[in-house]
Batch of 2 targets.
Target 1
Amino acid sequence: MKEIFKARKFYNNYGSEKFKVAVGIFFTMLVISVFIFLIVGYTDQPEASINGPYYYSFVDSFNNRVNLIDKPQRVVSLVGSYAETWILSGGELVGVTNDVISERKMELPKEIKIVGTIKEPNLEEIINLSPDFVLLSPDIESHVRIAQSLEKSNITFAFFKVEHFEDYLDMLNICTDITGNKELYEKNGLEVKKQIDDLLSKIDKKDNPNILFIRAFSSGAKAKNDDNMACKILNDLGTVNIASRHKSLLEDLSMEVIIEEDPDYIFLVTMGDSKKALEALKEGIAKNPAWSDLTAVKNDRFIVLPKELFHYKPNAKWGDSYEYLAKILYPDKYE
């Protein structure tokens, strides 16, 4: 506007025909330039323009800005479920932690290197693989420490936090953006979401069975609340977790409270050695005579859930986890 006011002042002072012509040409050229810019500006742009000078850029779950200069070719995952998500995204790996085999039973090419355990990854072996992208969890202290060493070595890394299906979907979306295989986001993400949505659409929200969810291990057992992966699924399926009303159960699995609530279902998932965990439960709370009088126990509704669907992150099988529980809770609706 300032320049226009100057032009007007100049025009008023001199008012020459030549000046009028010059101004007219100037504004004509300006309009043409803007028109050309608009046409060119809305033609197909290279992907790099979206992310500035980077191949891909995003914010991870630690709120760090992750900038990938090039498409990653040597990826290391320090979490088994993240390794699977990367593969589901069409990516390849050069290094993983041993939970990929011990827990997820994944079959991997022999050339992929095992770089320690999920809680104790071997930094030296990771560095020796010359990775250009490393997948980490913000919930594991050793991963946070390793990130500092990776940063000093100029190795790009990202933290992902996956607890529920929505988190998995977000990670899959980012990973398929990186690999360029968006059709796998549709197959391993959006199709699973549709499966879950279809299951949930059949639920009568007025029918809310009470449940108790227990996570058992060799040294004891604890109730879990709705922030747990399996509990979130149960909550989505319309159940009411008695631990949400009695927070004390999260610390002490009190038989008195369980008798008082008398849940319709008791679900259990084991950690570590399943056999030892179940034996510990039998010698613990299940040894109480009142245990066998609980409605859930009498009606064969004390159910041990499979680890692969309810302890380990099921990833592309998340819909199967929902379906597994839906058929138990509402057998008439899910045949």
Note: The first strand starts at residue 56 and ends at 59.
Target 2
Amino acid sequence: MKQFFSVGTGLTLLFFLSSFCPAEETSPSSDKKKNEKYSAKELVMKTMGGRQFWGDVQFFQGWKIQQHVISQHYRLLDPKDQRHASGSLADCQQRLEEIKAAEQLPPMRGKAVILVHGIIRSSKSFVKMKETCQQKGWLVVPFDYPSTQRTIPENANYLGKVIQSLEGIEEINVVVHSMGGLIVRSWLAQQDVVDPRVKRMVMLGVPNQGADMADRFRSNLLFKAIFGPAGQQLVTEVNSDFISNLPTPPFSFGVIAGGRNTLKGYNPLIRGDNDGTVAVSSTRLPGAADFIMLPVLHSFMMNDPETISYTLRFLETGVFRDSGKPQPIPVPQTVTVP
């Protein structure tokens, strides 16, 4: 019981949670219109939320099919998060095909950008990044997964299904925040051959070496209840080798870290410079084509204008700076003992 009621631990955990859970922005809702295209049998309904219990398994032009982690049933959502079907996967796929024909939805093609959120968050946390990518003419895939209900490898399975569903897309780029980067690396571990369409990835505040704060709170009952099984996998190598065994992406990737460029970062509980949640040193993954540190807090990186600018430049050119000069993170040379 001391774990729950220690004032110091409680306040520290509250600070930690607040860094993950600011209010998520949503796009302005449009006026409600009567939908006369569908019969009462296919009544269109606004979802009731519960994003932590649904994982995406298929995507098409903003439409997505999701699976519930407990009941295992599926639902079909339109780009405005309105439900158009519910039941088996086959039911939802059939309904999607009917809608494709009725609305004459064009096939997907060109370049897609998958946005992968972090733990406790949802794709809504990428609203400004999404809008900016769409202005480039890219198809944006706002990937949702039950981050607190399943392990990182289990959530990576959802990502794999979504990537498989992107038929017609010629190039795939990925932008990941926090644990989202570990989801992608876990997906890579599950592949015999990585989809050759995946070209570039930008990592925003990803704990590639684990998170000190997860080490601190991993035994706390409240932390376990809120962050779930994936939260236990965010610890550093001192407590687990899960993250250290994840593969390095075989495609070009860049790392953006948040920090103050001082010996102490935004959070005094984290060793060295940090963004309030993840240490700068933890974001550095050897093999990165480029690295840059910006004065931005962890939870606001995805919608920070400067971060978005650097992210888009890397997706287009493979470097962060307009000078074209990268600052790669070298892979340590192994010493062979004769």
Note: The two ends are 55 Å apart (CA to CA).
